[in-house]
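Course assignment 3, question 2. Fill in each field.
Student: A.L.
Task: Predict the tertiary structure for the chain below.
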Amino acid sequence: MKFSVSGRTAATGVVAAAVSTVMLLTSGSMAGAAPAPVAAAPDIPVTNVKAHLAQFQSIATANGGNRAHGRAGYKASLDYVKGKLDAAGFTTSVQTFTSSGSTGYNLIADWPGGDANQVVMVGSHLDSVSAGPGINDNGSGSAAILETALAVSRAGYKPTKHLRFAWWGAEELGMVGSRTYVNGLSTANRSKISDYLNFDMIASPNPGYFVYDDDPAIEKTFKDYFTGLNIATEPETEGDGRSDHAPFKNAGIPVGGLFSGADYIKTAAQATKWGGTSGKAFDACYHRSCDTSSNIDDTALDRNSDAIAHAVWGLSS
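Answer field:
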């Protein structure tokens, strides 16, 4: 689905002569001229996102059933994502850290261009718990931002702001990877991050549509998108302080994101609003071995992936 960013319409008006029009537009002196329209975000093919999830599942299956910090499945997941980004023209770097006696890895991917003093950063944690493959938690967020990054490349997008994507390690041990990254930034580099968007669990099988309510401008971007789909949202409270936006928020960086629910129980009112089953967890396989590729709601994955692209284009233009 494609939605134009609101408030950015093409300039209109009547001028006396075609020659004057050309001269004024060329010189940039047309009084009150509005900026050119912002390109609408592309549709993110859910089949592509699911193909990444299938790869994460295969990696987990081949590596003891999980993609946890310190395990071979995590590093294989990181290598898969990095290979896709390198081929798409991103500049990637791997940051290492140590947690619980094992080496951890963050993957950072920068899209060339844009104002380096205004950075829109998009992140998801790539690790699972040791109990299972973590396909919703958090293959879903990781796959969606990967496909959004690849869409940036396919479109040859030239944002006004600089775009940076990140896949965090050891989130399940207490946001270790993202804290390491934020703590390692100088004060000047922290101030350059205008927005941090976090996506942790966006395809829960009994989904809700929750929007982080931390920064009003980011929140409005997501809420406007879902309003366009005639979907009511609720403020995200279940994951407060429990995911990788927390270190950014604590450092004074504006944060936002989406969430489809974990082990909280869907109420009757929420089931009426969103469908699904009341009295049941949003994700009954949260942190369990059954968090496999069958533990995904395709509709939620599709909607949230498109919402991510909408925000990336809207906030970076």
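Instructor remarks: The CA atoms of residues 181 and 197 lie 15 Å apart. The chain has a mean pLDDT of 90.
Grade: pending
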